[in-house]
Every structure is written in C-alpha cells, then in structure tokens.
Structure to design on (645 residues):
RNA sequence: GCCGUUGUAGCUCAGUGGUAGAGCACUUCCUUGGUAAGGAAGAGGUCGUGAGUUCAAUUCUCAUCAACGGCUCCA
C-alpha cells in the first residue's frame, strides 16, 4: 500500500501501482470524466502513470493551467495526425501549447495550405478526436528512436533527438500517429470536443531568421462547443477594443500611403491626448527636479560612432543623408544629444544628479513586417530623460524613477503589467552587449536590489538588456494579445565613458557619472495605443479630446446652449455645441458613439432655470444641475485627473 | 526582411470578362422633436498602382505598393 496526499491535506492509502486516473475514479465518476492530467510531487504526469511510492498528487482539470496546456498539447498531436493523413511525407518540428491554444511547426516540402485545406484539417481533427484513440506512452532507446526517424526521413526530429540524453526518450502514439514527445498527454482524444484552427503562418526553424521557414498552423480547442463559442465571442470583443479600430473611429490618428508606413499622422483629437500627456509629464518631472531640453532630430555620423549606437543600431536607423561629404542620421534615440548637453558645461558633484528631459522625436526604420498600428511605428515621440548621477546616488535615483512609474500607473489605473528585469547574456558579451562582465554584474545586482527594496514584483529575463546596461521593462499586452514594452528604465555604465562625460567630485577628481535612461510613459505612439485599448476608447475626462457636448433639444434653445458652451470654453473645458437640426435622440447617439464623457442637454426647463441636464457617457441621465455647479464639478474632475468611476 | 491573406465611395462592405452598387457619413430642403438612428432629394469611385492576356479587364495572370495574421525584431 502507498499513501497519497491531496492538495487539501487529506491522505488516503491505495494499492501500490494504482494510476491517478483510478484514484480519480475512486473519488467520483464525475471527476474521472473531467480530469486531464496529474501532478505527482509537483511534476506533471500522465493519468496512466502507475504510482509506486508515497506521493502528493493534484488532479488537474480544464480549469487549471496544467490541464489547459496538456489539453492543447495533445490537440497539437491530433493536428499533426490530421496533417500527416492529409499530406503524406510531411515532416514535423515541434507542437507546443501556448497561452491561448497550440501550434505545430512542419515542413510541407514547399506546399502551402489554403483556407479550404485548413477547414478540411479542422474536420479531419474532429473526426480523429471522435475516434477516442488512447495516447500511448512508450519509453524507447535513443538508437531505436533515431532508427525510427531515419526510416521516416525526418531530419527535424533527428535534430531534436541529437540533443536528448538516452534513457529519457519517450514516444507517444494516438491512432496512426507517433511522435517524439516528453508528454504528458490527455488519456484519449475524445476529450477534445471543439476545435478551431485559427491561422496559418510562416515561422523560422528554431526561431532564427537565417534558417528555413516552416509552416506553422495555430489552433485552439475546448472540452465543449460552448466554450469554443465563448472563446470566439471574446475574440470579437477584443477586436472592438483594438486601438487601430478605435483610433480611426475616434479621429485619433491615421496613416497615409504618401507619408509612409509606420509614420502616423496625429489628428486633432489625438493631438489633444498627446498634449495632455505632455502636460502631465512636464508637471511631474518639474516637481521631481528634471530640467527640460530640446534637441535636433538629426546628428552627424561621428556622434553615433562615439556613442557606439551605430554598429548595434544601424539596421534600424533610416539611411544617412550625405551633405558636403558628411553623413547625417535621423536620430533613433535621444541619449547622445543629451550627453552633449551634459558635456557642454563643466560639471561639479554639486550639479548632480542632473536630470535632462525631453519628449524626443525619434525615427527608427523598423522592418516593414514589424509595424503594428501605433504600437510599432517608425516615427515616435519618447517620454525620455537621462539622469546623470554619482554611483552613490544611483539607488536613490533609480528608486525615484520607479516611484514615478507607480505614480503614473495609478493615475491611469494600469494594473495588468509585468515588471521585467532585463539582463545581459554572458555568451553575447562583445556582440550584443558591451564587453564589461564585471560592470554588468554589479549594475544588475544594484537594480535587483532596488526592486526588492521597493517591494516591486518582477521577473528576471536573460538576454533582454540594452547594449549598455540592464533595464527594467514594463510589459503589457495589446487587445489582441500581443506583448509590448510600454515603458523602460535603463542603467548605462558605458556611454558616460564613451562620451568622456565627467564631473569633479568632492576630492577635486574627475569622475564619470552613471546614467539612467528612463521613459515611464514610453512613447506617445505606444502609450496612446495602449490607453485606447485600456479604456476601450472611453478616456477619463482630463484626457478626453472632447470633454463635453452641449445638446440643445431644438433650435429654440440654440442661443442659450451657445452661452453655456461659451462658459465651458472660457473655463478651459473642451466643449462643443451640436446645433444641428436633429432630434435629441440622434444627437445623444452620435455623442455616445464618440465616447464623449459628458452631455449637457438643454431644453425649455433648463433655459428657464439657467441649468443643464447632465448625461454621462454610458450611464444615462444624471439629472439637472445649475451651470455654475456643473462648471465646478467638471473643473475639479479635470484638475485632479480623476479616473472614470 | 521572410511565409500567408487581403486591397471596390470618407467609413463598413456587396458585386461582375461588356467601363459599378448598399448602409452610414457628407450637402440641400422639410421636420422643432426631452435622453442611443425623423423624412426627402443630391453629390461622391478611371474598383491600390503598373504591365500582360483578351475584341473587351474592376473581374484572369505577373510585378509592385500598402494593410492584416504570424516569424524575426522592439519604445
């Protein structure tokens, strides 16, 4: 007999060799039907794994992350089975579960799959799932595994095998399909009741653009049709929030073929959001002891050679223009210009920390396929600043920057993000990263310590640092689930020396400052793209392009409405009058669709009482209010940058 | 940049080997209506661009540009 411990602390004894599936059955038939996979002492295993020692187990259903990922991974195997049945001779690479489904990478020998064929595969998968084939696990020697795939002529699996130690190799077979796989899997294919193959794409083998491109099929699957329907519904909701759609509907930005890809034109409504964000940044930075500067959009090649950016960055800079034998580049970053301002005057320790801020315009020649609405563009306005400080002040300054982030995020109600400590990769010193192993370790430790001290949750990621130092990135997700860095806070121990930046310390010696690069509001482009999705287009009052719409019920009240509108304008409120000869219902509808926060409706009653009827966007009638009262309320809400309640 | 898909009016989209249509938006007129669409008339497109096939191309073929879904990359 063995003792099995459950997550709730309960313990039961079972016969030696019992499987977790049988345990599930012993608890209830319902559970046995729902259970997908199990954890044994924290390791995810097949339900058929015999248990031969005392263990803690957790039975995972669809509701657990482990359940979902196993379910999707098994779905990927079913996809492969369908593909192999449809396109004999196909070779497979890997087919993992991902966040929202699964994919399988394959080499179809140059054949491309059409939409109809994708639908055909989906049908075939459903058919295979209905067969309810069991996933059979088999341990196999490396030699036998190699022989199997040599026979099949599958160089991809052979490549995979080359990296695996003998004795840990397993095959999984369901129906006619056998795959090299570590597992675990669902017990049988019949659990998969609903399948949607979502898209088909190219993907480089091993993620390296120098390698051959494989065909990747994405899909998602569910234990019931109802859940698939809900999933599709959710995707449609997400599309409504897409900043590209909202940006067009709300007149925020546009693109034009003659201007160029990745070069957004900010329309009047978008420009208001930009200006409000800049106002917030100016106020915040002024209070935090920053000084504002303005720098040109271009500079000579020599500066980027000095900074060291050119070799790392040239591919993503617009090509240089040459004048009288001198090359000029459009700036892709503001740092070197700011460094030149630092070195324009002799600096003493008394001048430090020196914090130079600029909403800097940068141009980056991103690859055409990388462009994505406002989130990835070629012309960007960065909420940039560089802090030059002595090493002993570093922690304090770095922490102050983090505090500024938190302050901003609170204003915008940003909660769904991940702080990522981005480190270097020692293997890439001298290539992707400045070759200063000790400085890397030292600064990485400093940053980590600041994060821990400030109690900020974060994840550490290798090989994501800037070339001149480690950084903290704030990661967010777009409506359609793509990940972006919203803001960044970087340490730079390299450029100070490259630019020969110096200050005189207390002992009258020259010293090189550490530099902090920071952009808590990222760029206008990405930040506003993010905010559009975050608010679903419903900006809080202080950010809303049009804050108030004055809606007279008929022409008879136009004069009074005009005077109300003028009083709002005089108070600095962005108000507009809708004096069209339309019915009030129509005016309200149009204003609701434009997501204007406040509507002031004016008819006979309001005119007589020198009042307005207030309607909040999305919330309906909020009753009458005197003009002076609504003026005070609006002004306060704007001044305090209140969020939507 | 690579793989795949798409490209018709300001927007959302029908449609066809014989030089184009709807709804919304726009203009004018009628309507003066109390919390999400009042009515009528009108204007608006060389069907992304260039070449080819054809008696004839918006429709078929190729190239190119752009957007979209991914890969790579990134604020």
């Amino acid at each position: 007999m063995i003792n099995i411990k459950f997550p709730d602390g309960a313990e039961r004894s079972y016969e030696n060799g019992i499987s977790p599936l049988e345990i599930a059955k012993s608890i209830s038939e319902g559970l046995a039907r729902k259970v997908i996979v199990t954890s044994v002492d924290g390791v995810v295993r097949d339900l058929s794994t015999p248990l031969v020692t005392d263990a803690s187990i957790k039975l995972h259903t669809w509701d657990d992350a482990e359940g979902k990922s196993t379910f999707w991974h098994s779905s990927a195997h079913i996809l492969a089975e369908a593909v192999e049945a449809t396109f004999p001779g196909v070779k497979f690479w890997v087919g993992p579960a991902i966040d929202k489904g699964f994919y399988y990478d394959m080499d179809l020998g140059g054949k491309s799959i059409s939409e109809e064929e994708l639908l055909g595969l989906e049908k075939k998968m459903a058919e295979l799932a209905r067969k309810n084939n069991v996933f059979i696990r088999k341990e196999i020697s490396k030699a036998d595994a190699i022989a199997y795939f040599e026979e099949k002529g599958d160089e991809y699996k052979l490549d995979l095998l080359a990296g695996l130690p003998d004795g840990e190799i397993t095959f999984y077979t369901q129906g006619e399909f056998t795959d090299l796989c570590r597992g675990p899997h669902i017990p049988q294919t019949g659990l998969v009741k609903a399948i949607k193959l979502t898209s088909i794409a190219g993907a480089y083998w091993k993620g390296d653009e120098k390698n051959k491109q494989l065909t990747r099929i994405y899909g998602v699957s569910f234990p019931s049709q109802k859940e698939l329907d809900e999933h599709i519904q959710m995707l449609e909701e997400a599309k409504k929030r897409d900043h590209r759609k909202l940006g067009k509907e709300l007149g925020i930005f546009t693109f034009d073929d003659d201007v160029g890809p990745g070069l957004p034109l900010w329309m009047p409504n978008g420009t208001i959001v930009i200006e409000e964000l800049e106002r917030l940044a100016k106020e915040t930075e002024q209070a935090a002891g920053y000084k504002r500067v303005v720098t040109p959009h271009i500079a000579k090649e020599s500066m980027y050679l000095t900074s060291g950016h050119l070799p790392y960055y040239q591919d993503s800079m617009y090509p240089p223009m040459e004048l009288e034998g001198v090359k000029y580049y459009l700036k892709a970053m503001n740092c070197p210009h700011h460094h030149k301002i630092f070195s324009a005057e002799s600096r003493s320790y008394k001048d430090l920390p020196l914090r130079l801020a600029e909403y800097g315009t940068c141009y980056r020649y991103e690859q055409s396929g990388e462009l994505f609405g406002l989130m990835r563009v070629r012309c960007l306005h960065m909420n940039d600043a560089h802090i030059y400080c002595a090493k002993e002040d570093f922690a304090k300054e770095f922490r102050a920057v983090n505090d500024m982030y938190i302050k901003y995020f609170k204003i915008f109600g940003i909660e769904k993000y991940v702080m990522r400590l981005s480190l270097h990769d020692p293997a890439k010193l001298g290539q992707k990263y400045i070759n200063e192993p000790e400085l890397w370790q030292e600064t990485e430790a400093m940053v980590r310590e600041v994060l821990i001290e400030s109690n900020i949750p974060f994840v550490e990621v290798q090989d994501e640092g800037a070339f001149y130092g480690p950084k903290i990135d704030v990661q967010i997700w777009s409506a359609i689930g793509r990940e972006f860095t919203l803001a960044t806070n970087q340490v730079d121990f390299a450029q100070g020396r490259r630019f020969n930046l110096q200050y005189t310390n207390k002992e009258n010696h020259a010293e090189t400052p550490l530099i902090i690069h920071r952009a808590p509001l990222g760029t206008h482009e990405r930040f506003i793209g993010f905010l559009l999705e975050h608010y679903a287009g419903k900006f809080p009052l202080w950010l809303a392009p049009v804050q108030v719409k004055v809606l007279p019920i008929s022409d008879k009240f136009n004069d009074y409405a005009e005077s109300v509108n003028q009083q709002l304008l005089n108070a600095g409120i962005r108000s507009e009058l809708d004096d069209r000869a339309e019915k009030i219902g129509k005016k309200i509808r149009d204003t609701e669709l434009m997501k204007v926060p406040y509507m002031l409706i004016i008819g006979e009653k309001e005119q007589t009482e020198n009042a307005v009827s207030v309607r909040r966007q999305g919330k309906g009638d909020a009753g009458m209010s005197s003009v002076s009262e609504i003026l005070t309320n609006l002004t306060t809400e704007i001044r305090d940058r209140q969020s939507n309640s």
About this structure: The domain at 66-238 of chain A is CATH 3.30.980.10 (Threonyl-tRNA Synthetase; Chain A, domain 2). The mean pLDDT of chain A is 92.
